[in-house]
Amino acid sequence: MTGDRKFFVGGNWKMNGTKAEIAVIAKFMKTGPLSPNTEVVVGCPQCYLGYSREHLPANVGVAAQNCYKAAKGAFTGEVSPGMIKDLGCEWVILGHSERRNVFGESDQLISEKIGFALSEGLKVIPCFGEQLAERESGRTKEVVFAQLSAMKPNITDWSKVVLAYEPVWAIGTGLTASPAQAQEVHAQLRQWLRDNVSEEVANSTRIIYGGSVTAGTCKELASQPDIDGFLVGGASLKPEFVAIINAQQ
Ligand code: 13P
Questions:
Q1: 191-244 pLDDT, tens per residue?
Q2: Atom of ligand 1 nearest to the CA of 173
Q3: From the CB of 211, is ligand 1 less than 6 Å away?
Q4: Cis omega (within 30 of 0) on the bond before 239?
Q5: Residue 139 lies inside a defined structural domain of this protein
Q6: 8, 44, 162, 213: residue to mutate for ligand 1 pocket, most atoms within 8 A of CB
Q7: Closest listed residue to residue 237, CA positions, set 76, 27, 8, 5
Q8: Which are the contacts of 142, defined by CB distance < 8 A and separation ≥ 6?
Q9: CA 63/CA 49 separation, integer angstroms
Q10: 111, part of any domain
């Protein structure tokens, strides 16, 4: 990473964790030590948001992994941004590849969710990335630009947004993108911000990488100029998460 952007490491526990397991995670995060130069946020299952907020160190932000685009009402099974805030949490992950590909969420719905979450005062980690067939057919740039373009009309405050580029083929597969592969897309994304939003937003917005990041791969990825941190799945449940948080030291 280069420039003034604060290094950002998010954990995404996905549908994992019990109270007992979360207590263990809270313990290794308390022990750390966590670099003060990294902003840390963990994405917890909705039912454990309150418990996680109570048990994790105060300098670790807590994110929901989804929310709906309305404040309340007849939306069985959904959670609103206001409920997330009511539990003391400030962040939400939206548009994760599993929301898109397992639950069929569209670019349009994700964009509307981002807009509503921001308007309700949450900070947002929008996720996006290409599938393997799209990469292999040379369409990566076209796909990620289309995903960003769909979000843009609803991103009213870029200072409250951390973009997470997660190539779908790298998620949960052990196939981390090489530092050069990830850097190439991150540089294109920053150029997209420059061309479509502003120079200032391009320079200040954190663009983090997700997809099989481990303690072993994080340092070289973190040394790339346009990689401003990570969104970590499996490894965020393990003590090696501390090493990933400290990748930049
Ligand atoms: P893994 O780190 O388990 O590949 O998951 C990445 C991810 O989807 C984070 O949101």
A1: 999 999 999 999 999 999 999 999 999 999 999 999 999 999 999 999 999 999
A2: 4
A3: yes
A4: no
A5: yes
A6: 213
A7: 27
A8: none
A9: 8
A10: yes
Q: What is the pTM of this model?
A: 0.97
Give ∠ CA 210-121-53 in degrees, rounded to 5: 65
Average pLDDT of the segment spanning 8-35: 97
Give the total number of structural domains in the chain.
Answer: 1
- pLDDT, residue 4, reads 85
Token pair 């313990």 is found at 27
Model confidence pLDDT, tens digit, residues 67-79: 999 999 999 999 9
Domain annotation covers residue 58: yes
Point out the residues that are catalytic. Answer: 96, 166
CATH of the domain at 34: 3.20.20.70
Please give the residue range of the domain that contains residue 14.
Answer: 7-245
Cα distance between residue 115 and residue 122, in whole Å: 10
State the closest ligand 1 atom to the C-alpha of 213, by its place in the atom list counted from 1.
2
Q: Is residue 1 part of a domain?
A: no
Distance 96 CA to ligand 1 centre (A): 9
Beta bridge partners of 128: 165
